[in-house]
Amino acid sequence: MEQTATTKQLLEQYYSGFARKEGWETVLSDDFLFTGGDMTRPEPLVGKAAYRQVIDRFSRVFDAMRVKEMIVDGENACVIGTYDFTFPNGARITGDVAEIWKARDGKLQALTIFFDTLTFQKNTPA
What we know:
alpha+beta; Nuclear Transport Factor 2, Chain: A; six-stranded mixed β-sheet; 3 helices; Nuclear transport factor 2 family protein; NTF2-like_dom_sf; SnoaL-like
């Protein structure tokens, strides 16, 4: 039971910072694994710095986010996040992202995301 609370606390801290666009990276492991956003590249990006670059780009298009649902089972979790986006072309869209997490040794270790990539392609320049 202790591990479930720890994973939930890590996620709560991550999303609190993520919504503010600051302080979220403190709960990530240094060898953090991120998979998502490009179905043609299923291998994960490795490292907190590589993930930070992804989030720096992503932060330009999301205005707000909130956790819609969180299910935690030991070191595993699934979060449905609702994001409000404003794209460079002016389109404003609210959408959900499924986020599958793994924690290890008191840090968030891995994240795999699933979302509507076609909407992103249609609304962002190449």
